């Protein structure tokens, strides 16, 4: 590929439009689900706790295998089938009268969407030139962060004025539009000339592919260190992420809206960081950027732990924005590392492994964090997480050569085929 701008890359623009559309619908839907269970059905706290489990469990259990499936079949076709199936299940969810029927539908729907991350990462690897990887990753990341801001605000307003079920149906429409965009993308002339490699891949047994993915991760020093740093950071973040309302109600009991405002400013901070990265950098230095992201998040969480009763609102909002800057740098850095340290043959299974490990963190860390906050209170736990993030981040920042190796090596792409096979 010789494009100098992503806007001239029709395949990527289709992929980007599909992703942005589905993510906007997903955030509409997420707010609506909480409203439906909490305010219309008025379910117990125990039933509410099953909602994030239904979202995260398939990702934790199945992402590794989804990555292998994405290696073996046409990635666009897989995403189209997943989008159409998700839309149909979402329509069923909108007309479900009971929570005990809705939970299995949520679980099935989350199972279908597991294929998206490894397939999308592989498609980016195939259709985006090496020098435009940072721009591609930051564009998709920025779209995700902006939908996190717009979706909950708009979805919450529509759900309150009309009905949460309307927001759920909007999500179904979004996934259908996403599938239509991918169908158009599939009809475009995208080279599929690595037929021999494809047949070799499919002759390999499923479990051999799984072992090969893990062997690739464990034998690549830079990839192993990067994933370890990323998972440690995610664990620290997830320990306290859902405890934000608990922290705020101690010092601002009359301002429940602060939770939503801080989430919005964090999303804005992440989007700003991604825009900056897309404009100024073509490559990222692993330890410096990944370590720097953890330091920024640590400063944000540390500031949040020091808020006090009667504080001006701009203080926690500023700390949220600071943490968001770190989240944006962290998100771009991890996606970039997955792209740079993989080949077209291994990107799907490596992305699946990372997604699976992340899913287990999302499942377990909030439970541990809730127990710690129950025992010690929110401010001390926030302070501990902040210190851990800054310590890990500073180690990565200062010792990046010792941990990741020569930084010049990181700017060189690993040897891989340039055939841009999509299947």
Structure, described:
The chain is mostly helical. 81% of the residues lie in helices and 0% in strands. The chain contains 18 helices and no strands. Helix 5 crosses helix 15, helix 10 packs parallel to helix 13 and helix 13 packs antiparallel against helix 16. The chain starts with 9 loop residues before the first helix and ends in a 13-residue tail after the last helix.
Give a quick set of tags describing it.
single chain; 423 residues; mainly alpha; 81% helix; globular; disordered C terminus
Question: What are the SSEs and their pairings?
Answer:
Blueprint: H1 10-40, H2 45-72, H3 75-94, H4 99-113, H5 116-127, H6 133-161, H7 164-187, H8 195-203, H9 206-219, H10 221-240, H11 244-251, H12 257-280, H13 286-305, H14 314-340, H15 347-376, H16 378-398, H17 400-404, H18 407-410
A few lines on this structure:
The chain has 18 helices and no strands. The chain has 423 residues and is mostly helical.
Give the mean pLDDT.
Answer: 83
Give the biggest beta sheet: none
Instruction: Tell me how many strands there are.
Output: 0
Structural class: mainly alpha
- Indicate the overall shape: globular
Poorly predicted tracts of residues: 191-200, 407-423
Order of helices and strands: HHHHHHHHHHHHHHHHHH
Number of contiguous helices: 18
Helical content, roughly? over 70%
Measured distance between first and last alpha carbons: 18 Å
Q: Gyration radius, to the nearest Å?
A: 21 Å
Indicate the proportion of strand residues.
under 5%
């Amino acid at each position: 590929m010789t494009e100098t701008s992503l806007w001239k890359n029709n395949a990527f623009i289709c992929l980007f439009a599909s992703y942005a559309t589905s993510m906007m619908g997903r955030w509409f839907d997420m707010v609506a689900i909480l409203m439906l269970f909490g305010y219309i059905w008025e379910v117990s706290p125990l039933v509410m706790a099953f909602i994030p489990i239904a979202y995260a469990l398939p990702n934790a259990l199945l992402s590794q295998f989804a990555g292998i499936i994405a290696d073996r079949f046409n990635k666009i076709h897989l995403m189209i089938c997943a989008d159409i199936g998700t839309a149909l299940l979402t329509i069923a969810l909108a007309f479900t009268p009971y929570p005990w029927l809705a939970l299995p539908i949520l679980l099935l729907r989350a199972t279908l969407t597991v294929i998206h991350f490894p397939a999308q990462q592989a498609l980016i690897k195939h259709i985006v030139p090496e020098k435009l990887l940072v721009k591609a990753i930051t564009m998709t990341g920025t779209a995700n962060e902006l939908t996190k801001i717009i979706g909950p605000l708009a979805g919450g307003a529509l759900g309150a004025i009309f009905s949460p079920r309307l927001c759920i149906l909007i999500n179904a429409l979004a996934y259908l539009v996403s599938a239509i965009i991918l169908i158009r993308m599939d009809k475009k002339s995208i080279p599929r000339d690595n037929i021999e490699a494809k047949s070799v891949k499919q002759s390999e047994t499923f479990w051999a592919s799984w072992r090969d993915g893990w062997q690739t991760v464990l034998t690549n020093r830079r990839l192993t260190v990067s994933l370890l740093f990323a998972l440690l950071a995610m664990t620290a973040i997830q320990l306290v992420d859902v405890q934000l309302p608990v922290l705020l109600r101690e010092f601002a009991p009359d301002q429940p809206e602060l939770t939503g405002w801080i989430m919005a400013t964090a999303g804005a901070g992440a989007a700003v960081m991604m825009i900056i990265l897309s404009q100024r950098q073509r490559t990222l230095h692993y330890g410096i950027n990944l370590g720097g992201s953890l330091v920024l998040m640590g400063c944000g969480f540390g500031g949040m732990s020091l808020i006090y009763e009667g504080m001006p609102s701009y203080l926690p909002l500023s700390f949220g924005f600071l943490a968001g800057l770190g989240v944006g740098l962290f998100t771009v850095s991890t996606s970039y590392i997955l792209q740079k340290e993989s080949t077209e043959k291994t990107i799907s299974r490596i992305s699946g492994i990372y997604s699976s490990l992340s899913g287990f963190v999302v499942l377990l860390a909030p439970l541990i964090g809730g127990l710690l906050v129950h025992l010690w209170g929110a401010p001390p736990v926030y302070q501990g997480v902040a210190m851990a993030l800054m310590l890990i981040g500073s180690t990565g920042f200062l010792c990046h050569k010792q941990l990741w190796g020569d930084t010049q090596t990181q700017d060189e792409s690993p040897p891989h085929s340039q055939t841009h096979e999509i299947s």
